[in-house]
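ugh ok so i messed up the first submission bc i forgot one of the chains. this is the corrected input, ALL of the components this time, i swear. 408 residues overall. if the numbers dont match what u have on ur side tell me asap before i send this to the collaborators (the ones from the other lab, u know who)
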Amino acid sequence: MAATASAEYAVQHLIDPEICIRCNTCEATCPVKAITHDARNYVVDFKICKLCNDCIAPCPTGAIDNWRQVAKSAPFTLEEQFSWDSLPPQGELQVAADSEVPAQVRELTEIATAGQGGAVAPPWSASHPYANLYSIAQPATATVTGNLRLTGEQASADVRHIVLDFGNTAFPVLEGQTLGVLPPGLDGNGRPHFVRLYSVASPRDGERPHYNNVALTIKRVTENHEGTATLGVGSNYMCDLKIGETVRVVGPYGTSFLMPNHPGSSIMMICTGTGSAPMRAMTERRRRRMALKEGGELMLFFGARRREELPYFGPLMKLPKDFIDINLAFSREPGQPKTYVQDLIRARGRDVERLLRDDNCYIYLCGLKGMESGVLEAFRDVCSEHGLDWDRLKPELRTKSRLHIETY
Ligand code: NAP
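and heres the new structure output, hopefully the right one now
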């Protein structure tokens, strides 16, 4: 893209290929169909994008939240964006005087610098997250110290609990953050595999307290979205790792899906399958602090096909009832009706309503994309049954940083 002396400037919306996990949320959200993708990158068509920001908040990684000031006559083309492995730096533009740059361009450039573009803010009492400490160009190296199958032998899914130790390398994470793994080797086009993102499943002080390690919850992918047998590159690499092997890690990522820290704060967690990873981290953080009697409730809605498929089922069931209110939804348990988390939210309507009304309760959704609309509909039903207006409450939950969604 060439710089120009013309005063015709614009802000171009771009997607960071380094941290995009290709979840398609942005493409599905964009009201004007400005976002498209190839086998590798998601890109934004400058000619179509209206800078409406609708795609910003739903993006789980923040990859969507990138902007460059460009000459209107020479924006980055789709071809250029498809070829990127990382975003180009802001180019040198010859801006004669600040007043020549349109207000919207200035405003969005400020947003770009702040990196906040419309994502939900973390709870006011969340700890300060560190983000983007390690890049693809300079990843951290971690050693595998654990790789345990979580799902029963009879289970259809191979879900694993993988522990990575960072040794003397600082890799600070908070519950709710994610990290990226760089699988070795090249893809079909001879380019390095793109980064795979996983939620951290351990609390901030380590999978083992005061060790410099993190745990991940990873399901071996054996078929694609259409159900055709395909081995997922990242998940199979991770699930096959042996103790002592090393892994290249980037991140950490995520500055929004973070837990509250103030005494008396409650957490409602809703997840399916491996979407349980951040919920395990938050629950374990609270469990380690139980003796402090800081108050607040934990309510969990957790969906899996069958008992054997539910990661962390054993340890979860050992937690005291007055510490966490557990609601398990099994969709394929023989002899039982198909149950989804949203069915249990409706069944527990009275308690859900109480927590929806409570400004000290923060709500987290993580897991399958399909669950998101089902859960939000269930909230709507609970609200209408108990005299609350969901259409008014939902935006309020977002502005008060009380509703956090990460669905893929
Ligand atoms: P899964 O085993 O395929 O499904 C878990 C449960 O969700 C099943 O009981 C399933 O029921 C049910 N379900 C399916 N559609 C639903 C809907 N519309 N509403 C409510 N429940 C529904 O789950 P998974 O393969 O582990 O997938 C978990 C998701 O979490 C993935 O999208 C993954 O990308 C995401 N995630 C993973 C991580 C990580 O760190 N690994 C972190 C965050 C998010 P049926 O199949 O019987 O219909």
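quick check: Confidence is low (pLDDT under 50) at residues 1-6, 93-101, 108-118. that seems consistent at least. The two ends are 33 Å apart (CA to CA).
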